[in-house]
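Sample entry was shown:
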Amino acid sequence: MIYSEVLTFMDRDPNATRQFMEITAENGVTITTTPSHLLLLAAADGWRESFAVNIKLGDVLLTRGTGSVMRPSKVVHTRMVKRRGVFAPLTKAGTIIVDDALASCYALVRSHSLAHAAMAPLRWMASWSKTEEMPRGVHWYANALYSFGDYVLPSKYKYL
């Protein structure tokens, strides 16, 4: 686990009310995220990604441990909740710790590595501009990619 700077927001609307998934692990960590958000789960070869809505009881979240170590913890409860405020930060690494659980910065695309590559131009633009302005709503670049992806991505990669 390493710190990764937040460069910009792919989506930011503090006043929006949406449906979220609340996912609780046996160690008490609870992450609240949109159903289409990618979470990074423990797997035999490191980690695997899954849309939050597809997380099942017994899946293993990677949670903050001591120091720089991630601690696996089994999912024991999931539920849909309504919450106010939508925030999708983009970090240099493309990952983020949310509520002590490891998550991808990305949503809507089933591949963290594909989404990370596609967002490279936005990371570059954000690191060059260094503006203090906080955009509201879906970033124009992310919106363009989502529209483009509707035409070129196979359905197995899309959140439906």
Remarks:
- The longest strand covers residues 70-91.
